[in-house]
Amino acid sequence: MKLVLQRITEENGSLKVSESVYTIPHATAQHYRQLVKFDEVINYTEMSVEEYDKVVGFVCEVFRNQFTVDDFYEGIPSHKLIDTIVDVFSFVRTGKTPEEIKSLENNEGKI
Fold it and tell me: What stretches of the chain show up as alpha helix (H) in DSSP?
């Protein structure tokens, strides 16, 4: 799976966006186990700030701590926060990237 974090800096009075790409070949069974624990205690539709921090910390763990919680929050556009977390959760549950899932859904029922 691939995750892209953006860094916005100011250079000579203008904003510059750079990207860092992080990849992992697979999630571990331990990650799956942690997701099951989250499912037991977190109401995903009404998460607190602390729960968001736990979930984002989990995303960092899935990516082998290649970035920090702060890096994640700073690098993900606000409108992509939930989708990104859901994508990582889906990857842990299925072993498939969002693109692979979409491709399977598009090909469902086709011979």
Answer: 29-41, 49-62, 69-75, 81-94, 98-107
